Amino acid sequence: MRPTLQDMANILNLSKSTVSRALSGDPRVAEATRVRVECLAVQIGYTPNPIAQGLATRRTNTIGLAVPCAPRSLSDPFYLEFLGHAGNAAMKAGYSVLLSAEEEDGAGAHSAHVELAGSARVDGMILTEPKIRDERVEALKRARLPFVFLGMTRDQDVSWVSCENRLGSAEAVEGLTRLGHARIACLAGPADQTASEARYQGYCEALVKAGIPLDLNLVASGDFTQAGGYAAMAEILERGNSVSGVFASNDVMALGAMYALRERGLSIPEDVSVVGFDGIAFAQFSTPPLATVRQPIDELGRVAVEILIELIRGDNQGPVHRVLPARFEPAGSAAPPGGGALR
Amino acid sequence: MRPTLQDMANILNLSKSTVSRALSGDPRVAEATRVRVECLAVQIGYTPNPIAQGLATRRTNTIGLAVPCAPRSLSDPFYLEFLGHAGNAAMKAGYSVLLSAEEEDGAGAHSAHVELAGSARVDGMILTEPKIRDERVEALKRARLPFVFLGMTRDQDVSWVSCENRLGSAEAVEGLTRLGHARIACLAGPADQTASEARYQGYCEALVKAGIPLDLNLVASGDFTQAGGYAAMAEILERGNSVSGVFASNDVMALGAMYALRERGLSIPEDVSVVGFDGIAFAQFSTPPLATVRQPIDELGRVAVEILIELIRGDNQGPVHRVLPARFEPAGSAAPPGGGALR
DNA sequence: TTGAAAGCGCTAACAT
DNA sequence: ATGTTAGCGCTTTCAA
Prior knowledge:
Two copies of one chain form a homodimer. Chain A is built from twelve helices and twelve strands. By secondary structure, chain A is of the alpha/beta class.
């Protein structure tokens, strides 16, 4: 059995309180006893039981991370990268990370997140994929648990960290128009997510700026997965459109789209230019490397954790809104129409 | 405040014990009272506090997942996919997943895993990246916590789930020799991991079988990252070797290697064939699609959780060893030397 | 079938 | 500077 505080107290002929204080660095315990306590702790390998601590203090030093729901799921590289950075930031701040994965049927996904929030097992939550009308918000507020979204929420008194979705998308599409593209397809995200909306707006904005009329035939929605990007691209091509550029609302869909294009004998960027959004590590290694709007994924993770911890500690009442820059990064997948090289 | 068991008891004029029993489906509580209790629970939204339950029962219904250490980290698609599947399996079985990420400096990574094990916050652990000589094993045994490795361990009384690393690799390299390749490079993994060893053995085995002498000039080690694969490939080429095939010990390194090859004007598969190992989703979308040895990542996740839960419940004393199949899957990145098409 | 009481291991007033 | 005493919310003997 693991030694307990009581064991320590018995051995040292002290009370539990004193031992507890000594261990937590309480200034009103004698230097000498503090040393004795610490030595013994090391000797017998005592470490406090976080469960018991949690029950006593009502703090768990754990943050919940609500990973996205099906179909996107945890396998999306963007979320995995985010998870990694947020996880590291949390650990560094002394917090553990409890995952709230989706349930099998997808339907219960949201309730799983909400359930975790109500379970007293976490001090706060990071949520992903904010919906335009997100039912989780109400439930979370009711649970009086600090939380922060990765992505802008409609509700203004909710904290979030996001990136310049609209601006970044506009820049990307402008990049295409500048190269001389006019028939630019848009692979939008799911209609119910705020990120989809913002990125689509950026697309439209850039078209307006370039004097290109919006052609809804060139727009299709995907679900932010490779398969979704593939299907959306295929759909647009099936409609009989000729396309010279594609703006995909995330990198994963862009990669799926590239696949669909090649399947039809189109080469990239000679026949069609493709740009994505996110800046996932993998996109650099596609052939050709994917032009994309880079989000600072590491910083998004760090800032999300930072905000959440402030909210938890009460250092900040919230709501906190942070927008990080997203910049268009040209790469081999985007070139002038007809195959001119871009450098 | 969340309602407690006491609240429930007060309202119903029952004792905590009875309410607790009713909720846990204890057969010796009257049907009528059970119904009353359940109704009230729903009405006032009572859910048991898992922390308190944990303290009382010494079970947390949580499993710890020790994600790999730097430099591979959580961003490796293979681990992310694994994490997703294992996470889903765990949730389905009623367990939460607590992440034990690496620490910033990398050095403390192992101790972070071990620390979690000793913290009484998890009922068991899934560990990844077994080392040939893995210090964590001793510490975990001492903590008397059930655990299972993803990957074979040297220590035979440790439970693990793995795939046919050696056989799969041999098949892959044999695939290359059959196509007519003789100068086959090997991008090995870090020397201290069991998986690296097994896959390298498979490579050697296939060479022997094909009567090709092992040329150490064609072997270099990478760290299982893209950058590592890139560097290892570059190193082999810098040595002045002519290479017609490459076996990379994982997909991510294979993708990095493809990059290095192309940078030197070599095309795939016309000039060089490349095969990887893992079968990550992304590899299908590379250009050309990556030939690889497919591990059943989903099943690895499920089985790891399954074994761990058996160990936790005591249904099985362990050690349990499960080897899942790994099959070579030809694809566009592997073709006969000189550019013949493979179909 | 139900209740009373004693913990699980810790923290935090409130004494001394 | 240290000890005493209650809990935190739950499960689980042991009684009734």
